[in-house]
Design goal:
178 residues; mainly alpha; 6 helices; elongated
C-alpha cells in the first residue's frame, strides 16, 4: 500500500471490511446495477430487430429498433448518471483504472446508439443497414464493458457491503469518503 494510505489498483476494494461504496443508492441498494439491465436489453433487442429486418424486410422490425433504441437511450442516461455519481462519490473507485475504462466505453456506446437513433429518422428503413453495424459494434462494446463492470464488483468489491446494515460500524457510514 502506498505511504499516503491509498490502495493500488489491485488493492482498491480488496481490503477486508473496506470496499469502495456506491453513493447512488435507494434504501441502501446501489442504483447503477439496478438500472443497467434496461439499456443493455434494449440495445441487444435493437440489434436483434435489425437482423430480423435485414432478413425479412418487414418494416415493423425497423420500427421496433427505433423504439428499443429510444428506450435504451433514456434508461441508459439514468444508469450512466447513477454510475457517474458512484464514480465521483468515492475516490477509491476513481483510482481503479477499470472504472474509468468502463465509464468511457459506456459513454461511447451511448454516443453510437444516439447516432444510430438519429440516422433512422433521416433515412428510415434504409438506415437500418448502417444501424445494424452500429448496433453490432455497440453490443460488442457493451460485452467488454460488462466484463469490466463485473471486475469492479467481483474483484474490487465496488458497492459490496461488508456487514449487514444494522452491524455497519458508524465510521463506515460516514459520507466523507472523498
Amino acid at each position: 500500500m502506498p505511504q499516503d494510505g491509498s490502495a493500488t489498483e489491485e488493492q482498491a476494494g480488496s481490503l477486508p471490511g473496506d470496499h469502495p461504496r456506491s453513493t447512488a443508492t435507494l434504501a441502501g441498494h446501489p442504483l447503477h446495477p439496478m438500472l443497467i439491465p434496461f439499456p443493455i436489453v434494449c440495445f441487444i433487442g435493437a440489434l436483434i430487430s435489425d437482423i430480423l429486418f435485414a432478413s425479412t424486410r418487414d418494416s415493423d422490425w425497423s420500427g421496433g429498433s427505433v423504439w428499443l433504441l429510444g428506450a435504451g437511450l433514456l434508461t441508459g442516461v439514468a444508469a450512466a448518471l447513477a454510475g457517474f455519481i458512484d464514480y465521483r462519490g468515492d475516490a477509491r473507485i476513481r483510482r481503479i483504472g477499470q472504472a474509468r475504462r468502463h465509464m468511457v466505453i459506456n459513454s461511447g456506446v451511448m454516443l453510437l446508439e444516439a447516432i444510430n437513433f438519429v440516422l433512422r429518422f433521416g433515412e428510415g428503413p434504409p438506415a437500418v443497414h448502417s444501424g445494424l453495424w452500429l448496433s453490432l459494434l455497440s453490443v460488442a462494446l457493451l460485452a467488454y464493458s460488462g466484463w469490466l463492470g463485473g471486475e469492479l464488483v467481483y474483484r474490487h468489491g465496488v458497492g459490496v457491503r461488508d456487514f449487514p446494515i444494522d452491524q455497519v460500524p458508524r465510521e463506515k457510514l460516514s459520507r466523507d469518503r472523498r
